[in-house]
Amino acid sequence: MAYTDLIIQTVWEKTRVVDSNDSKMWRKDECGAWIQRMMYGDQSSQYGWEIVQIIPDGPDDASNLCAMQWRNKIGKGDGRLMCSVTAAGIDNKETQPRGESSGELADERNQVGLDRR
User: Fold this and answer.
1) 11, 18, 24: which is closest to 67 by C-alpha?
2) Is 50 contained in some domain?
3) 17, 27, 78, 113: which has the fewest Cβ within 10 Å?
4) Number of domains observed in the structure of the chain
5) Which domain holds residue 74?
6) Is residue 17 a part of any domain in this protein?
């Protein structure tokens, strides 16, 4: 779905800020993966991200949308996070081989951010 610039910015602003990082440029998704504001929709970047529904098949307004690194998903059936990518220092790394999904919730270890400078 194509989202307006206003929706994209609103969803970005709901995403987790990481101390000592420029929140206008860098945030982390619910799986702890780095995303970069200018990389919205870019699946060729490790920092690319998409907007996904929190409640699958729910309303398509900002209250039901969140930003996720493009390989991370929310399960359609149960709404659980499927974290394929998480932060490893200033980069993102795969949490399991491509094609598999853990269906596990992000853990606290992946919620700590590092300075990107």
Assistant:
1) 11
2) yes
3) 78
4) 1
5) 5-107
6) yes
